[in-house]
Amino acid sequence: MKKTSSMLFVLLLVVCLQQFASDIYAPSLPAIASSLNAPIHLAQWSMAIYTLGVALSALIYGPLSEGIGRKKPMLAGIAIMVWGTALCTFAPNIDLLILGRFIQGCGAGACVLWRATFRDIFTGEELAKYGSSLSIFIMFILPAAPVLGGYLQEFFGWRANFIFMLVYAVIAFIALIYGFKETHQEYHADKLNFNYIIPTYKILLRSRIFVGITLCTFFSFGAFFTWFTVGSVLLIHVVGISPVKFGWLNCLGGGVAYALAGWLNSKVVKRFGMPLMMRLGWAGMILAGILMVLGYGLIGVETWVIMGPIILFYFASTFIWPNAFATAFSPFGHIAGYAAALYTCMQIGGGAVVGGLVVHLPAHNQLSLGFVLILASAIAWVVYEKVVFTKL
Description:
Helix content: over 70%
Number of helices: 17
Distance between the termini: 33 Å
Mean pLDDT: 87
CATH superfamily: MFS general substrate transporter like domains
Number of strands: 0
Number of domains: 1
Strand content: under 5%
Order of helices and strands: HHHHHHHHHHHHHHHHH
CATH architecture: Up-down Bundle
């Protein structure tokens, strides 16, 4: 039990590394655009390009983890993250910052192997239960990233965010070396051959349940990531709140909502089942988008009118992640690394695609954000009902 707790702590450190790198500098987007004399949409796009790097590189780390284990690819990925983060730290212009973010994302793609490692340890409803418990910790910690980023921006400037990430990445690297025991012990050289890799990915792509769930997470995470690309610009640049206040609003509102929903899911998922929990999630996400649109029509662009629906969205979306993960992974323990790679490519890819498109929409009010939340969440729900649920 003590050894398992140690492993879970290292996994928590790794998964939070990926998310911290994604979100910590969200409060700095207006400052980055000003400092580097760049359009605001390019500063926003630096967030989407990171997720693109994560999505694409995951397809490489997955097969590697099946052939040589989980530990070595994660160590290599974090080393690449250090390189990309250093480039971001000293970037003299927006082009090098974007390049650094892509390299950073290509390294962070290795962090997605936490899902394969988790699947190595747990199965079935136990996987969903402990996944929810882990989500409580993850989702309580992750909203703290913009808080920290807000303070670093306020007192030290935007580059301090990347200096923090350099230190964090080095700590995670050391923790992996000394605190992580390989969960996929056997070396399989044949699994690094294209004659094995391509057919294995085909197994996943032929599974209607797996493909359907990954499409659901593509659109769900796309809606979720839209908030981080648009929210800071909307509240800091348009409404005029401080970066620190933006961070605290995310931490207190989003953190409590995440923790409460994760705890609730872990308690009732066995009683009500994963399908119902996911439906409740999508219903709440759509309602959040509707309330945001109505709030603009009735009241206008106000902080609480925007943050109220976002807190609801945080709460509802937490019913999606652990249950979708368990539904998709349970049948594929023998190829969990490949499943983790393709699943993450689709989920994070949704953030890259939807988030990349949204930066080109008007950001002077919350209408664009509200409509994206409604549309993306509704598509995810329809895909689940038409593609996945009929095969369960």
